[in-house]
Amino acid sequence: MPDETKKYQQSDYVFKARSAAEDCLEIAKIHHREAKQLFENASRAEAEGRLEEAKLLTDLAVAREATAVEFESTARGESSDPVVAEILDWQEDLSEGYVAYTPTFVTGDEPVPEQLIEELRKPKPGLIARAVAWVGGLIT
Q1: pLDDT tens per residue, range 118-134
Q2: Burial of 99 (0-12, 13-18, 19+ CB in 10 A)
Q3: Which of 46, 58, 87, 128 is the most exposed place for a label (fewest CB within 10 A)?
């Protein structure tokens, strides 16, 4: 009987569960910190006359800030997860130029297409295969 009481007792350890909103806020803080560093490096590069690098770093910093704002709005419940939205955008970009594969089926009633005959033909032996066959012909 003592084993059963232990079995249903509540644990002494409590695990602090983090919500998705807290995780999004933490990610937003990281992005803000990275954006700040990028802006600082951009101003340093501009002061040293490296204008191309400064422009690139500024563009990256602006993108980081935008991502941080997206994560903050997700934490407030105003939008969906930015990572999921980015993946969906990426999939939409891929599907724009997508052409579905249409296999060629032969029923036997019509003549076989030339393309199918070419695909089914055995490839010609390469240089090494011909050399092995030649040497094998000499040995036998």
Answers
A1: 888 888 888 998 888 88
A2: exposed
A3: 128
